[in-house]
Inverse folding.
């Protein structure tokens, strides 16, 4: 009897070949962006044609299938999600699920448009957001993002704070760029009660004349520097994601460390990604994928077909990514052809 109940439950959930329960969908709603961060894309980036991008209705249909299969959290990402026209309509479409079968809808943003949308996000049920910010220095900000102004992002962050959105800052650790201002960054996060997560640069997509290796900073090194100035205590907190967390004694913020290259974290992966063209990527650091766009545009598609295809795709989730950093040769391995701006971070 119990095994029959378990079987029935399993039929409505997503479990991959490595017995990981998939409950978290990251959906990229556009590959476009108003910034050109040096580690993310080249200065002259080629973006996709509009017709290649799923409509919100198509995205919603896919999300609905995932929700029926036990997805509890959806993160909207990009490119820059807040530059997609009508994006608030999409949050509105998802909102009714928050009072029934979805626990959370969140957003990852570069913050440039937050001043316009913070209150609407909150009223559409978004309670937490991640804002990507790598420096508090105006000149460095311009250098890293090529097109951005730091003031716009800080203004957006303040608007989000005023709108009661809980904010986590994501910061890509960059050797010789932001590593010397990490103390100020941490102090600013403490003052504002923002959790702060550091990320290692990943080899995703061509970035033109830039070389990621020039600025690759292993987070073990960064953590050592931080520990010499702040009292860190490792904590067991997990968001189900790749970050390992520490608390700074005497503060109420958490510091996260995402180390795809120096330490693998895949054994607890609970996520799946869909890019803006409707391609499902089973892993950020592998090329396995399933294209759902044609299916979603087929008027004959039934809900049962969609569910079966999602289940089939999850059965092909690989065990782990192939990113790695060879410390002796100072070489970054596992290069992916696609950019992070296609799949979202
Ligand atoms: N535009 C939004 C933003 O910047 O928050 C959302 C998309 S962006 C691709 C998501 C995250 O990926 C950001 O925190 C960004 O810093 C990070 N990112 C982009 N390219 C990366 C790379 N090659 N390695 C590591 N992180 C990267
Ligand atoms: Fe745009 Fe985000 Fe990539 Fe920067 S990291 S270029 S903000 S998509």
């Amino acid at each position: 009897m119990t095994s029959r109940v378990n079987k029935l439950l399993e039929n409505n959930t997503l479990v991959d070949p490595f017995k990981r329960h998939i409950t978290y969908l990251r959906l990229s709603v556009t590959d476009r962006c108003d910034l050109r961060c040096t580690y993310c894309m080249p200065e002259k980036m080629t973006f996709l044609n509009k017709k290649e991008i799923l409509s919100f209705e198509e995205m919603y249909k896919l999300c609905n299938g995932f929700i029926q299969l036990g997805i509890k959290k959806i993160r909207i990402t990009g490119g820059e999600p807040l530059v997609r026209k009508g994006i608030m309509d999409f949050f509105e479409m998802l909102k009714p699920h928050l009072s029934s079968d979805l626990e959370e809808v969140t957003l990852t943003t570069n913050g440039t448009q937050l001043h316009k949308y913070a209150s609407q996000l909150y009223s559409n049920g978004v309670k937490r957001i991640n804002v990507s910010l790598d420096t508090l220095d105006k000149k460095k900000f311009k250098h890293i993002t090529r097109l951005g102004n730091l003031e716009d992002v800080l203004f957006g962050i303040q608007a989000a704070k005023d709108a009661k959105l809980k904010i986590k800052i994501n910061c890509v650790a960059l050797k010789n760029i932001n590593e010397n201002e990490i103390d100020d960054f941490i102090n600013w996060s403490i003052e504002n009660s923002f959790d702060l997560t550091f990320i290692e640069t990943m080899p995703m997509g061509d970035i033109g004349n830039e070389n990621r290796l020039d600025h690759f900073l292993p987070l073990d090194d960064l953590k050592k520097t931080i520990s010499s100035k702040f009292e860190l205590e490792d904590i067991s907190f997990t968001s189900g994601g790749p970050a390992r967390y520490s608390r700074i004694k005497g503060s109420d913020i958490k510091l996260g460390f995402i180390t795809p290259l120096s330490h693998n974290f895949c054994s607890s992966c609970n996520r799946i990604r869909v890019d803006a063209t409707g391609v499902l990527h089973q892993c950020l650091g592998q090329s396995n994928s399933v294209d759902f766009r044609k299916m979603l545009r087929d008027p004959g598609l039934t809900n049962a077909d969609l569910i079966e295809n999602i289940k089939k795709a999850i059965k092909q989730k690989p065990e782990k990514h192939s990113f790695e950093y060879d410390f002796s040769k100072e070489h970054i391995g596992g290069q992916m052809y696609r950019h992070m701006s296609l799949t979202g971070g």
In short: DSSP finds eleven helices and 14 strands in the chain.
